[in-house]
Each structure stands twice: as C-alpha cells, then as structure tokens.
Amino acid sequence: MSSPVLLAPQWIAPVAPPPAPADPLRSAAPHGVLSGHAVVIDGDRITALLPLAHAQQRYPQAPTIPLPGHLLTPGFVNLHTHAAMALLRGVGDDLPLHRWLHERIWPLESRLVGAPFVHDGALLAFHEMLLGGITCVNDMYFFPEAAIDAALLLGIRSVHGIIVIDFPSAYASDPGDYLRKGLELRDRMRDEPLVSFCLAPHAPYTVADEPLRRVATLSRELGVPIHIHVHETREEIERSVSQHGMRPLERLAALGIVGPELIAVHAVHLSDSDLRLLADSGASVAHCPRSNLKLASGIAPTARMHQLGITVGIGTDGSASNNRLDLLGEARSAALLAKGGSGSAEAWPAARTLRAMTLDGARALGLDAHIGSIEAGKQADLVAIDMSAAELAPVFDPVSHLIYSCGREHIAHVWVAGRHVVQKRQIADPTAGLRVREVVARTAVWHNRVGEILSGQA
Amino acid sequence: MSSPVLLAPQWIAPVAPPPAPADPLRSAAPHGVLSGHAVVIDGDRITALLPLAHAQQRYPQAPTIPLPGHLLTPGFVNLHTHAAMALLRGVGDDLPLHRWLHERIWPLESRLVGAPFVHDGALLAFHEMLLGGITCVNDMYFFPEAAIDAALLLGIRSVHGIIVIDFPSAYASDPGDYLRKGLELRDRMRDEPLVSFCLAPHAPYTVADEPLRRVATLSRELGVPIHIHVHETREEIERSVSQHGMRPLERLAALGIVGPELIAVHAVHLSDSDLRLLADSGASVAHCPRSNLKLASGIAPTARMHQLGITVGIGTDGSASNNRLDLLGEARSAALLAKGGSGSAEAWPAARTLRAMTLDGARALGLDAHIGSIEAGKQADLVAIDMSAAELAPVFDPVSHLIYSCGREHIAHVWVAGRHVVQKRQIADPTAGLRVREVVARTAVWHNRVGEILSGQA
Q1: What is the C-alpha to C-alpha distance for residues A137 and A140, in angstroms, rounded to an integer?
Q2: For chain B, how many helices (H) and strands (E)?
Q3: Which residue of chain A comes nearest to B438, CA vs CA?
Q4: pLDDT of residue B456
C-alpha cells in the first residue's frame, strides 16, 4: 500500500545530476541546490524530487512535512570506524602510537572484547552517529553480530567488515576461522535490507600473503568490497619494503587486492606511483583526517587524489583515536586540510566535500545505486539541517554553510530507508531511546573495569 | 554587600597551580583536575577554591549551584577575531586569498562598513562566542564603539584593537586619525570594567615605518599590547624582503614592536631565527589554525613554539575566513595540527591546550592577573561543560574529553565577572535575547544588500 509523504525543506542539495532539466519551474542555485522543491518518499524509497506545487498536485492526499530554514541532503556515509571502541574513548589520548597500542588499546581489548562489549560500545557509537546525520556506517570490529543487533535496534544502515587477521582473539582463532565466522554471519543476515558486508583484512602488516589472496578471490566471487588499513604511517611502508621488497600497496596489487573493490583506509603516505596505482585501478580511499592528525600519522594528499579522479569518502575512525564520531566535523577538517595541505584554497570546495561524505562514500561501498544522493528510486536516507540558529544568520550558500559553519548540533531530522529515526534532535523510537539510556548507565561498569585493568588490579 | 555563591561541579580544571597543597581533603587527579570541590564566587570575583564540605561550612548561608556531570573551567579567551564580519560569513568560501579579498571582502566592506554593520555583526558574533564558552574576546575592526555597545549588552569581556592602517576607510582617514579615534574611545571607556584596548596596526605590509614607530612608543607609554597580523603567507615575507631587505618580524623588531607586548597573529611561516626572536623577546602568538587552513596559508609550527616557551593563545579569526566562532573546536584543531604537523602525538596534550585557550590567551593580552584561571582573587569568568550526554559516556579524563570529544553543544553555563550570562545553553538576560532576535531578523536586510553589491546592482 502506497502512502507518500512530502518533505518540503527550504533547500535541497541532491548531490546528483539535477532533475528534469526541461522542467520550467526548476530554480537553479549554486552547486545545484534547489529551492521550492519537495522530496517525495514512499515506504523506504524516494519516489520523486520536484517543485513543491507539482508535488502537491500530484499527491493531493499526501501529508507535507514543512522544514522552513532547513537544508535537506543525502544521509552521511561514515566510510571507516570501529564502533565498539566508543567504550575506550579517551583512555589513551596524547600518547604516541606504539604506547597507545601496547599500553592501552591492546591490553584493554584482550581483556574486554566480547559480544557484550561490542553491543554496548556499538550502540553508543551508532546513537552518536545517527544524531550527527550518519545514516550508513562501515564498521570493522570483532563480534559483528553484536554490532548488527545495535544497528538494527537504532535503525542505522550498516556495513560490517568480515575481519581477517593472522592473530587469534576472543572472536576467532586464525584467518580461516575469521573468514568462516564472517561469511556465516553474512548468510544469516541475507534478508536484512539495512545490513551488508565487506571483506576487512586488518592491514598488510597483520595479514600474510595466503589469506590476502583468499580475500581477493572471495571479493571477486561474492562481489563485495575489500576494506583495509594501508599506508597509515611511514614505518609501515619502510617495514614492508625491507620485509617484502615492495611498498604495501604494491604488495596488495601483486596479491590481487587493488581494484575497484578496494577501500584503502587512511592512505596518508603515498608516492606518485601509489597515487597512480589507486587512480588507474579505480580503488577508493577512506580518508580519516582527524585520526591521522591525532596519532601524528600525517596529512593525506587529498587534493591530489581529487585531481587524479580517485573516489575519496570520509571516515571518523574509532573513538579511541579521534574521539568524536562526527562526520560533519570530519568533512570540515577534510576540506580545510585539503586546502592547507595543498596550498590551494580552491581544493575540496564545499559541494565536492558534501559529495565525499555522501555519494563518494556510497560508491566506495558499492552502494551508490541505492544510497548517497537524492534521486527517485534511491533509498530515503536523508538529513535535514536546521539553519535558523542565530549563529548561522545570514545564509548565503546553504552547502557552504553546511560544511564550514554548521555543527552536528544543527542536525534536526534523520531518515533511514524512509523511517524517521531522528526527530528534532532526538531518537524518535522510545524503545531505542530507553536502550540507549540503559547502556549509558552501564558505562559506569565498563569504566570501572577499564580502570582495574589499567591499574593492574584485574 | 557580600553574597557568595558556591558552584559545585563534578570536576574543576583550575588551569593554575593547585590550591593549598597542605589541605588533606584535596583529591589529586590527572592534570590537576579537582573532584568534590567548590568554587566560591562573590560579586565579580572568585573568592575561594576548596573542598565542597569546607566551603559549605565556611559559607553556611551561601546557595550552592550543583553541577553534576559538569566540568568547570576558566572562560575561554578568543585571542583574535573580526567580530563584525559575522555578517559576511560564507560570502567568499573556497576562493584563493587574492580573489577572496578583491572580489568579495573589500568591495563589500567598502560599501557596508559603518556603525550599524559593526553593531549587528558584532552582536551576532559575541552571541555565538558566549554560547560557546568564550568570555573574553580580542576584536580588531573599524567602529569599535559599535562593537563595544554589543559586547556590553551581552556581557562579554572584550578587548578592542585601536586600528592603524595606511589606507582611509569609512572610519578614519589616515594613521593619525585612526590612532586619535581609538585613543579617544579608550579614554571614554576608562570606567567600563569589561572593556580594554590594545594597539592594532593591521599588518607590516599595510602600515609604514613611521606609524609603526608611534605604535611602539604608545605601547610602552600606555602599557597596552600590540596586536598585528604577521607572517600569515609566504608572499608577505618575500615582498618584505624585496621591499625592505628584511623579513616582516625583523622589520618590526627594528621598529621596536617585538617584545612582551607583541601578539603576533597567525605566525604561520617562521624561520628558526623568527622563532628565536619571538621566544627571546617574550612575544606571544595568536594561533588561528582553521583560518590558516581555509585560506591555504599553511600550518603554524606550534609544537616548536611550545618547546621554545613561546606563549600561544588561540583565535577564531573572523567568520569570513573560518566560519565558526567556536574556540573549543579551534582548540581541538590546534591540538590535532600540532601533533600531525610535528609528527609527535604527544605535542599539545589536552591540559596544555586548555591552558592555551584560557591562561595563555589572557597572558598575551596582559590580563593574566585578572582572568584565565580559577584562583581566588581573579574575576569569575567561568564555563561549565555538561558531560552527561550519551555521546560522552564514559568519561575517563574530563580535560581530555573537553578537548577531543566535547563540542560547543555541551557548554551549558557561562559566567563573566560573576554574572551568569548563559544558563542551560541560553542567553540568560531576556533583553539581550530579544536584541539578538531583532538582529537575526535584520540579517535579511544585510543579506539583500550583500547580494545587490556582489551582483553590481547597488
């Protein structure tokens, strides 16, 4: 049964080819921003984008949700995170990478990680993400079934990495075990429309050639992306050269990993030939600017990536290394660093940055036929940003305002697959809201356990 | 008449030497954070910082304001802005500096700037700043009397630059006229406790030797700081070398401008000798990280500045080049860029970053005897950050959380000189709130005028 609803915001940024150019009522605006238009949603889909008056004629029975002063954009895509690590946010700040890993993250993970930890951490993380306009998240962590429970409860779209790593953990014993568990979970989730998967070998330095070859084969057979940390630090590259005689990306290419299905996470230190390899192969990059700064990895050459036509999405990384799961803030950092890093104030202009955080993230995940832009036929994953606040007046260009002036505090409404999950800055579903409050209360228990482990008492 | 009030937050970050070390009830915490303590304020001052139980014994009649889950810090100091430019926020995004200035900022300023523009823009800017925890702002713009009206209405502490520039404007005709008007205003404001002044020659490339010498003399005579844009871009330095045979800072030193009273704004491109000059002379830096990125100027060597003992405060710059007047976000960028830029994740740790945005900013302004830390005898300029939100649970270290995880959306209460100006995220004074709404309504008029000027219709 059809029951269309009209969303009538002040501005729409479709992040897509503009609709029906022959339409005489279409009002042009900078960056293809539309005024006086409506998005029609029906069930889980966008069914039309057209002038409001036309929409009201065509759907006379449909209710209209007026959104004066709001900009409507596609939902944001968080292309890289470790959601469960929300429970470790701030335990290792201001430490060099080696001490951060050896003194904080690994000792804590080895003691804490299990389905309860992953569920609670992921629920906190997805709650934060949804309120910040993230409608699709690409997560990489152990016990993904617990993260999926949290995602389905909150109604966020999620992609889960089938982890492959040479080391045993509480979750799995060896690369084959990791893959088997991940693929079984993928089969069980076949009928969940909001859940999908990618292959997630941890990094070139933690996965041997043989399992990487298997990942390459599986990716081609199953048609799923490969999500891997790569070229995050200079040391990683030097070690690969001395150990394998190749830079990590060269080695991945030799193993069949570098192609359109590759999501190269971080990609901070890239030579000209690395950049050409990514561009020529059609690979994508998951750019995590704040994590790269915080761990002192460096600044990725993202202006150059855009020049070369590389698809660059944006990720928050996990909250142990960021510590805000705030894609809008991350996108602002990405735009500013692209300019400051390249010496060109024209690098990563606002509209292009909005595309990075929506359609380009979706493309990297192989989901751009379904999400990432406001087009008839796509899933209704939408964000409405309220620009009526005093600190945003006057608005000259709503897309530029979104990237440079707004914060996640201005995100008022979020829809995922047509479901109105965030209403006026609150999780709309009371059951989900209650569960979030329960988990927040339980963080006191996790806080104590972390303290005991770090002080050697447990 | 004395009427003390006790503020009882969950945590206090005094940003100062810890109180009374002999006190047996004092609980140590990372970065000198105190738990179970109270700040006693009386009139415009902090009169004590001591354990809550002691405070309640000592002041049995005083009301207690409980702030569970809140961190109390000194008010934030915005060391560099052009407040009135809030009305031009977003008119020139993604343009190179030359086009930004010649096609947008200068044509607009030459047509718009006057007392009404400055009043409305500054009121919007100061409102945004106060809600974001900024209790003291160092402003540099024409018609400062109009900005002072706005500051006094809202109750923010403000320092105003006595502009000196070789070019005429609607405000003044020549360097002498600028100085005369600024000094007269300073005399008129002598009895306003929340208002002070500094000398603000615009930049080495817009002010000739003779007026710069006069500024140096006046600074010594009057005991006021000198606030000047310097070493923002490479071109500025190259032009100075070819024109004067000296780098801008060398020339300023020769003219008597470089000393403890100097606030070097931007200071992005510094040679070793520039850094040593700043360090040896006791000069301060106003670091504006996001503006430097957005205009593609570069990244200031702030980790090195700290190593050399240079006082570095943080500024938002004006909202035409940033575009958020958000000192907390700016401080996070400063901490992250110090790490990413230097390659050391230990650079600019959270507690040191909090000091940069409070006490070090106050020191640069010569106001550190009065503001910048929570100490008995200082002005009660305070910020309470609510850390009870789901996206902040659990809290391992409140100072680290403030810098890396919180946003200005978590700032709940602000006091300036003991006056509770922001209560639960709202401007407390209804008259001020009404005036802000009037100005927001009037931005539609400014918006139209900007559009007319840029389209050549006016």
Answers
A1: 10
A2: 17, 17
A3: A390
A4: 85
- Chain B closest-CA separation from residue A323 CA (Å): 5
Residue to mutate among B33, B85, B94, with most A CBs inside 10 A, is B94
Chain A residues within 8 A of B395 when measuring between CB atoms: 90, 447
**B-proximal residues of A, 14-53, CB under 8 Å:** none
pLDDT category, B25, cuts 50, 70, 90? very low
Phi and psi torsions of A201, nearest 5°:
-60, 135
B187 and A CB contact within 8 Å: no
Domain B5-73+373-427 in CATH 2.30.40.10:
yes
CB-CB under 8 Å, A408 with B299: no
Q: What strands lie across the sheet with A262-266, from one edge to the other?
A: A76-81, A134-139, A157-164, A195-201, A226-230, A262-266, A284-287, A311-314
Q: Searching chain B, which residue's CA lies closest to the CA of residue A344?
A: B296
What architecture (CATH level 2) is domain A5-74+372-427?
A: Roll (2.30)
Predicted confidence at residue A458, as pLDDT, reads: 64
Instruction: Provide the whole-model pTM.
Output: 0.96
A407 touches chain B (CB under 8 A): yes
In 3D, which of B192, B202, B110, B88 has the Cα closest to residue B145? Answer: B192
d(CA B115, CA B262): 28
Model ipTM value: 0.95
Contact map slice: A 93-122 vs B, CB within 8 A: 93-97, 100
CB contact under 8 A, B346 and A96: yes
Residue A298's closest chain B neighbor by CA?
B340
Closest Cβ–Cβ partner in A100, A294, A391 for B128? A391
The answer to whether the beta carbons of residues A348 and A306 sit under 8 Å apart is yes
pLDDT at residue B24 in the model: 45
Digit-coded pLDDT (tens) for A38-84? 999 999 999 999 999 999 999 999 999 999 999 999 999 999 999 99
Per the CB < 8 Å rule, is B404 touching A294?
yes
Could you give the angle at the alpha carbon of B25 between the alpha carbons of B19 and B27, nearest 5°?
Answer: 70
Closest-CA residue in chain A for B387? A440
Encoding tokens for residue A297? 């990895």
Give the residue extent of every domain in chain A: 5-74+372-427, 76-364
Provide the chain A residues 376-395 that lie in CB contact (below 8 A) with chain B. Answer: 390-391, 393-395
**B96-134 confidence digits (pLDDT tens):** 888 888 999 999 999 999 999 999 999 999 999 999 999
Q: Choose, out of A94, A268, A297, A427, the residue to mutate when testing the contact with B (most B CBs < 10 Å).
A: A94
Touching check for B426 and chain A: CB below 8 Å? no
B379 bridge partner residues = B45
Report the distance separating Cα A287 and Cα A353, nearest Å: 12
Beta-bridge partner residues of A416: A419
Predicted confidence (pLDDT) at residue B18 exceeds the cutoff of 60:
no
CA distance B349 to chain A (A): 5
pLDDT at B32: 84
In chain B, whose CA is at the least distance from the CA of A404?
Answer: B323
Question: Cβ–Cβ of A407/B326 closer than 8 Å?
Answer: yes
Span A252-276, pLDDT tens digits: 999 999 999 999 999 999 999 999 9
Q: Residue B118 is inside which H or E element, if any?
A: helix B115-131
CATH superfamily of B76-364: Metal-dependent hydrolases (3.20.20.140)
Candidates B162, B172, B237, B233; CA nearest to B195 is B162
Tens of pLDDT, residue by residue over B167-221, are 999 999 999 999 999 999 999 999 999 999 999 999 999 999 999 999 999 999 9
Mean pLDDT split into 10-residue runs, chain A, 458 residues: 90 79 48 92 97 96 97 98 97 89 92 97 98 98 98 98 96 98 98 98 97 98 97 96 98 98 98 98 98 96 98 97 96 98 96 97 98 97 97 96 97 98 97 97 96 85
